[in-house]
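Q: Second attempt. The first request was missing the SMILES, so the protein and fe (ii) ion are both included now.
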Amino acid sequence: MQTAWTLDEIDWNAFEPRRVDPVQLAAVKAAALVEFNADDYVAYLERVFAGEAEALTLIRQWGDDERRHGMALARWGALADPAFDFQSAMARFRAGYRIHPDAVASVRGSRAGEMIARCIVECGTSSFYSSLRDASGEPVLRQVAARIARDEFHHYRLFHALYLRYAATDRIGLLRRLGIALGRISEADDDELAYAWWSANLAPTGQVYDRTACFRAQQKAALSGYRREHVRRAVHMIARAVGLRPDGHFARAATSLAWWRLRGRGAGASPSAPSH
Ligand SMILES: [Fe+2]
Ligand SMILES: [Fe+2]
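A: Got both inputs this time. The predicted holo structure:
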């Protein structure tokens, strides 16, 4: 595990309120909730990897990273919008959304499968924070997003290494691996992102929760800073996670398709937003 950064090393005094983009701000507020909610996912993974000491150590360190991401994003969100009440938003989110609370084994069918799903999520987060780092004009957000993006790439490599270890015994074929990856990508439209968007941005104004509308708004905001290079890299990581050649025909065609879809529709289920 790489050495963890701290919130103290961010130059918070460099904050420039006039450079805050309201769309990015809304995306950051929702992301802060999803990131800080890592405890729930750590508890689930602790059940999936019960008795596996090395994996459990890595999972707990990963949880510490994700919580720190949530704290850094929440602090920036409160700088940009002093009315942002992170604690209340977090309480709302946790009251309405739980991660596999009853699962005692992986919902992906095996530990190796669980690691493929984790790789897909870390691919989405790393590309989201990279796009935020590159698209934001606000210097403190750039500092925060750059550090988080680095962590998310590290998490991807960590989970991919664990996948390779467990794949030696949990043998899963290419079709099943693809199914897990596509399943996790399509799960991007489950309640997690939509409910975080509502909890952070809409509930304080008294709006009722509309899952479809919230998901679309969240995706549109999260994808707003993507450039083709972010999409190319995300597809490359997904291909590697399922065992396909990252520079092969599949990856090139998938990049073009994903980019066309992103530009044409502005939103849609994608592996391109912070999620657990
Ligand atoms: Fe994170
Ligand atoms: Fe992560």
